[in-house]
Design brief:
elongated; five-stranded parallel sheet; Maf protein; 11 strands; Rossmann fold; about 300 residues; six-stranded mixed sheet; 10 helices; alpha/beta
Length: about 300
């Protein structure tokens, strides 16, 4: 540890959770002396819209964590958004979450105007809960998740599809995607539609998934292709879309499809009983991929706007 180099990190650290631990660990890993700016109770009440522990309680939890790391550190009370970060020449590095990375750039801009060198900015990825929403003190306070991001109640999901893939398959795919989370899944099959809109059936659910199978003509290859599209809508109104791999279908099967002969799922599967299941599974996975790493998909504004 170099005492002449200082890393700063700040926050309210309300309900000390997995994301907070990750942020502080990143500061420790710089090998510098660490200064933690901890928001005062008064400032915290202005910026946060939930009840959170008082300053001594929050400070004690940070102190316990950093003491175990055997690093040099101190915890300072933060009474505004930037503290002395814009005018202290001794600061070398600032650790921020992806959510607040923009603030780090603003601080550096002010430092430049004050004739100071910029700090190195280390962005730390958000910790996502097992329901693909961020871990936050607000969610912990509301009783929705615990401090490790585990859901305390089932994730409520609605699925509607125009092909009868069966509820067991859907639940299996979702259980794999959501891993250890308990799920409450509503499944509906409507074969007579080619236009499924998740906003029409999300209601009070956390997620709504619309699984749409259709056939299109590829002019380049001159083949008819079966395609599966999954549209995922969450309770905040954010939509992500995933596609499974396309499957070539024969002219005979295509004309059966156009005429409406037989059950749609029997026509689609044709010679491979697992083909459709795999296509549906991959379309689910692709629709959820941006939610695992939202910073790679320009979704950070969405997280900043969450209530």
């Amino acid at each position: 540890m170099e005492r002449n180099k200082i890393t700063i990190v700040a926050g309210s650290f309300g309900h000390f959770h997995k994301g907070h631990r990750k942020l502080l660990q990143a500061a420790v890993d710089t090998g510098n002396y660490v200064i933690v700016g901890l928001t005062s109770d008064t400032y915290g009440k202005i910026t946060k819209h939930y009840d959170f522990p008082d300053f001594p309680t929050r400070k004690q939890r940070i102190d316990s964590f950093l003491r175990e790391k055997k690093c040099g550190y101190e915890i300072r009370e933060l009474k505004d958004n930037t503290g002395d970060s814009t005018n202290n020449p001794d600061y070398d590095t600032i650790v921020v979450s992806r959510e607040t990375e923009k603030n780090g750039r603003i601080i550096n801009e002010k430092r430049r105007k004050n004739g100071l060198r910029e700090m190195k900015i280390i962005p730390v990825d958000l910790e996502m809960a097992e329901d693909f929403f961020p871990i936050s003190s607000r969610r912990i306070e509301s009783g929705e998740i615990d401090e490790d991001g585990r859901r305390l109640e089932p994730v409520k999901i609605s699925v509607r599809t125009n092909i009868n893939i069966g509820q067991n398959l859907v639940v299996g795919i979702l259980s794999n995607a959501y891993q250890n989370a308990r799920l409450d899944v509503k499944y509906e099959h409507d074969e007579n539609t080619d236009d499924l809109r998740p906003e029409e059936f999300i209601r009070d659910r956390d997620f709504a998934f619309a699984i749409l199978c259709d056939v299109s003509y590829d002019y380049e290859s001159t083949f008819h292709l079966l395609r599966v599209k999954c549209t995922a809508l969450d309770r905040y109104g954010v939509t992500t879309v995933g596609y499974g791999p396309s499957k070539i279908i024969s002219d005979v099967v295509y004309h059966q499809y156009v005429r409406g002969d037989g059950m749609r799922e029997e026509i689609f599967i044709e010679n491979d009983g697992n083909a459709l299941s795999n296509m549906v599974s991959q379309s689910f996975q692709m629709s959820l991929e941006p939610r695992k790493r939202p910073w790679d998909y320009d979704m950070m504004d969405y997280f900043q706007e969450q209530p």
